[in-house]
Amino acid sequence: MTSKARLRSGLLGLAIAVFAPLTGHAQMAHQHGSDAACEGTELRCATKVTPFFAQDGKLWLAWMAGGRVSVASSTDAGKTYSASVPVSEQPLNLDWGPDARPKLVVDGKGGIAVAFSIFRDQAFNGQVLTTRSDDGGKSFAPPRPLTANNESQRFEALALDQDGTVFVAWLDKRNRAPAKAAGRSYDGAGLFFASSRDGGATYAEATLAQDNTCECCRLGVAFAGPGRPVVMFRNIFDGGVRDHAVITFSDLATPGELHRVSTDDWQIKACPHQGPSLTVAPGGTYHVAWFTSGKVRKGLFYAHSRDGGRTFSEPLAIGQADRNPTRPYLLATPEATTLVWKEFDGERTTVMVMQSRDDGETWSKPRAVASTDNASDHPLLVAHGGKVFLSWMTKADGYRLQAIGDES
Amino acid sequence: MKRAVLGLVIGGMVACAASSAAAPPALKPFERGSWREVLRAHAGRPTLIHFWGVTCGPCKIELPQLGKFMAEHPDIDVVTVSADLVPNLNAATQSMLDKAGLAAAENFIFNDGYVERLRFEVDPSWQGDIPRTMLVTRDGAISTIEGSAEISDLDKWSSEQGRPQ
């Protein structure tokens, strides 16, 4: 199979017309650019921060800093935090890929399940590790592999079922070696899943939902109803086309049919490093957002499905096309569906927000809610008690949990 | 204007220092302004600029093919840029370049945590997908290949570049 390279033309003249600053050569010392503000394991040094509101209203954070995943909680919506607890004794070679981040869910009894990826060898093969706290985050069990297979796993996503079962989906390269041994080519990675009935202490045997999906993008996972997870992912369709798909499970062990979200026709033999976002509204509507650079459309898009993920609405372009709209995140609450994303103007990164009060039919005018002038994590959303919050880690300004008002 | 001339002089000195060293030149930091300096330093010469990363599966396959391409096309300047957001992975990057036969190319590694800004300087529409190859002709026209390049396409492009007038 050959990939068709897409040629685009530009003009060098434009690029070299401006004087080049001399800072590049002035800093030849071996000082590496970092997306972290500091080297320690504390929150302000984090590059990736993931929030979770427990049922009791306590905000939990898991973050990646100083080679550790650490966890802390806040009872005042992010104003102050408990002492942070690293989940591993030793620093680890954590997966720093653009779409990687530690995950956590907290069940109704206060049990905390955490999952994250490490690079387990020099070839950057990944391994997903999981751990659990039974004492309210004071200590964590030694992290252990999610699956016995030791090929390569990355991009785990956790979701909590109503009964406290932890569902996990991830991308797994275990089918690559057998395919190659049999003389077959193998593209991408398998979408695997498992669940845990003991709050993340142990997980059932890994099962394949879909083989040959794109290997380097985060997954979107949500529940369509009790026991019915939905996974959205960048699939590899015929001809190496990396467009998005959803699979809705009929129960925790049974993946349903694959349905294509949109025909963008992004044929590319590359790692886009841009995964989708999925949320399911209380009424059952699937809301999805994704990035593509396909022949049919390019940029950031939103769509919804009102038939359980079988068909999707016409993609709606999001954001200002000349400002790189990217990193979407959706959250449906009983009051509204909220979408945030990043835009970049050449100097500054801005988080934009828009909301729909009619289940995705119409949207408020996009509004800037936060900005920074250095590296930043993807913007995320969490909700509790009828309030929606932006969760965003930035190198220059630290972590913020910011209430999002009524955008209508 | 003085600044521009000084830039050329410094660029030239760095290039000379790199080519006269016995050991392969170390990875150069790719920072704010580096893109314009690369274009300036290679102006008037057909240049292939390849963006890749150590964790990118398709890149691992393509890199040795580019090493072979460079050996077979001494008239084309080859520049590589490791464009992962990499904390302290110079050794892995250099090792993969060495194995791919690209040690003698002009090799850069992203050295600014604010990757959005680095990418924006290269191409405002680039969202970070790798591999990515940019082909620059003698007169400065740039073609971008998103994803793995077909070596036959690179050969064809190379044959179209001709000799200096």
From TrEMBL, chain B:
<keyword id="KW-0732">Signal</keyword>
<dbReference type="InterPro" id="IPR036249">
    <property type="entry name" value="Thioredoxin-like_sf"/>
</dbReference>
<dbReference type="InterPro" id="IPR013766">
    <property type="entry name" value="Thioredoxin_domain"/>
</dbReference>
<keyword id="KW-0676">Redox-active center</keyword>
<feature type="domain" description="Thioredoxin">
    <location>
        <begin position="17"/>
        <end position="163"/>
    </location>
</feature>
<dbReference type="InterPro" id="IPR017937">
    <property type="entry name" value="Thioredoxin_CS"/>
</dbReference>
<feature type="signal peptide">
    <location>
        <begin position="1"/>
        <end position="17"/>
    </location>
</feature>
<protein>
    <submittedName>
        <fullName>TlpA family protein disulfide reductase</fullName>
    </submittedName>
</protein>
